[in-house]
Amino acid sequence: MVEPVLQIDNLVKAFGALRATDGVSLDLRPGEIHALIGPNGAGKSTLIHQICGTVRPDSGTIRFAGEDIGALNTAERAQKGLGRTFQVSSLAPEFSALRNVMLAVQAKQGSSFGFFRPVMRDSSLVDPAMAILERVGLADRARLPAAELSHGERRQLEIAMALALQSKAFLLDEPMAGMGPEGSKRLTGFLDELRKEAPILLVEHDMDAVFALADRISVLVYGKVIATGTVDEIRSNPTVRTAYLGDHA
Amino acid sequence: MLTRENTVNLVLALLLLVAPLAANALGQPFYVTLATRIAILALAALGLNLALGLGGLVSFGHAAFFGIGGYAAGILSSHALSYEPMMFGLSGTVQMPIIWIVAAIAAGLVALAIGAISLRTSGVYFIMITLAFAQMVYYFAISWPAYGGEDGLSILVRNQFPGLNTMKPLSFFLVCYVVLLASIGLFALIRASRFGAALQAARQNETRVATVGIHPYRIRLTGFVISAMVTALAGALYADLNRFVSPSMLSWHMSGELIVLIILGGTGRLFGPLAGAALYVAFEFALGGLTERWQFFLGLILLGVVLFARGGLLGLLAGKAKHG
Lengths: 249, 324
Description:
The complex is a heterodimer of chains A (249) and B (324). Chain A is α/β, with parallel strands linked by helices. Helices cover 37% and strands 24% of the residues of chain A.
């Protein structure tokens, strides 16, 4: 079997008496989209925070690209190639779309301590950033401040930034949230292509998108993974049906 | 490219040059000194603007760096004039360029220590902890009798600049003016650079910066140190302007004044500190002639700016700030 890009083993995080993450094990293999679903309050956000390094687990390990990343902070995990988007878009709002992506390009090049060369005249930043904006379909919005972009465009911009980091894995936190049906469809197509670049851990509520995209699905309920399997296995799993899927299946 | 903002900047820079030249020609050295004060305060605020305007770091302790610069000038020149060696047997100097370097390095080191601790906090805590550190420096200066303690330290003869007679008000003004313009140029370069991009992005969204793999802490600490060094340079010039340095340069009033200058002029704007300093000194002069309580009216004006003109004077004259 191919070694997983991301491997989470027996992760535990408790807030007081609440075990928000209760022995979660999960892996992400090359080339796949692994969807993580679960009702509100199931602990999806807590799990993501632990993967990204904003919350420390009480116990358990997180291995990424063959390395234990438990002791690294958010910035160091990003440097290792963990690309992430947020449930609520997180951008530098005053900067143009182009400058947001340029920031990611600059970070990828590993040099943020240049003091004298203007970034806008630095083709090693502008050109790759522009190319990525074209790829996600934002080229004509490149000069607009991120704050003036539409909700869907901000989502695309976040993905563009993750792309610019040449991530080894993408962690997408509800990318479909707030998108219209048309936008969701377009984004679904885009993510389908994106998996060729790097595997995706997709946290999503939009079941149409999840069923269309996912190679595997894990269901998180009360901090525990109650089932992991292909779309068909999850659809027909009786525990999942009662716990979560309801009418969807 | 001559945008509206560039035009305003150019006019401000020219005004600050032409006014003292004219005053000097008309035999009014007082106005030359006033212009020098504007240039120096603008420089001090420009330093703070790097941390506050670009980095969003509301330092309420920049008086420490301003005062350290001032004491560097005072201490070095007092040793040079008395021929007494300082620590480690080093001799003093009356040469401004050397004094500036010493001032910047001393303040930079102190800022590294203060910043390393303060930047672990944010928001109100950062404001308070920088204030606390500055007050420590202030009380240290008061209780250090070797250099005048509470009474301060006089600089008998203004320090020298190669090839100029700095005792002439206009010559000293020109020194300050050139230093200010050079520092504005440096600010513009830094703002447009990779470092500037990271620093500004860290102000707008810290999580975003960390998520692309840039350490916000390191970026901010570097910005804080550069900021302190520029403010210290202004402090050295300020001591030479007054030919006197005292703990009042280190007091929290001074820190507050620098923040006020930035708000008046326009936070994060290239010429904001100059506009703010000019406005401040003009108020001080015009209102100070009418009443001792001029700061009451300054307070009203500041209130007006905060309520109705968030972008400060530059926001009014040149419109909203633009990012590339």
